[in-house]
Automatic annotation (TrEMBL):
UniProt cofactor(s): Fe(2+)
Protein name (record): Fatty acid desaturase domain-containing protein
Ranges of residues in domain Fatty acid desaturase: 65-285
Signal peptide: none
Species this protein is from: Anisodus tanguticus
Membrane topology: Multi-pass membrane protein
Family: Belongs to the fatty acid desaturase type 1 family.
One of the protein's GO biological processes: very long-chain fatty acid biosynthetic process
Pathway terms, separated by semicolons: Lipid metabolism
Amino acid sequence: MQHRRHRCQKMEENQTLRKFFYLMLWWHGLGMCFFGRKWNSLDMGSAAVVVSMHLLCLFAPFTFNWAALGIAFGLYVMTGLLGITLSFHRNLSHRSFKLPKWLEYFCAYCGVQALQGNPIDWVSTHRYHHQFCDSDKDPHSPLEGFWFSHMSWMFDTNTITERTGKPNNVGDLEKQGFYQFVRDTYIIHPVVLAALLYAMGGLPYIVWGMGVRIVWVYHITWLVNSACHVWGKQAWNTGDLSRNNWWVALLAFGEGWHNNHHAFEYSARHGLEWWQLDMTWYVVRFFQAIGFATDVKLPTETHKQRLALADS
């Protein structure tokens, strides 16, 4: 009995040490992402914006009201679903469907208010990600650790420029005056939104409509780059680390079906199974039904059979 008790105690100590080791590794990785390299002025500016939004969230418990929460949720849908997932990602990056220019520009403008960069730069980075996925040229390669792929790559422009060079893969956007204008005046637009929110509801609308909402959409978007290359299942032989992650899919309006997406980059639909919830696809399908979305691309059964894993 005493021997068994000693063994149990030893196992508990080993588990505690293992947890401590993983925690230290986690913190070390986080620290190296931010302190293990050189910073330039662009990196510091980007980090200042991101840190400011996180600090703003500290006031959330003291400024809560239901109207502010409603504003945050509405902007979450507008900037996250219409802006990032539907516009920046599926429409502009992959040309999975076409929209009338007025609607394309409206959705793209919603994405601008997510404070994740202008459409030209966002799309360029994402196209490079697919071109060099999970390699040493991937702008946010998971091979360099969770925190790098999650967020710190955004504050390391020297490394990104060394990998990809200057953006030369977004000529289709650069020739359009709207996207040039947004790129040149980018920072003005969220400032105008913040002023409007303050006029409507004071500090609570700023804290919830800007801080909480922006940080929420930040991390949901970043989880697609990090978590969806670490946790989940693979249904397709994509030759990379992409995974289908159901809980990211719920938060990110269907973007978590990431292995599906990497298998069929052009597809407007990421949740290929009936049970794979994909809110962005439902909106695209609605636009298609009323005649707004055209040339909607989907994988054929032949394409699926070609990439299907034997045990999927």
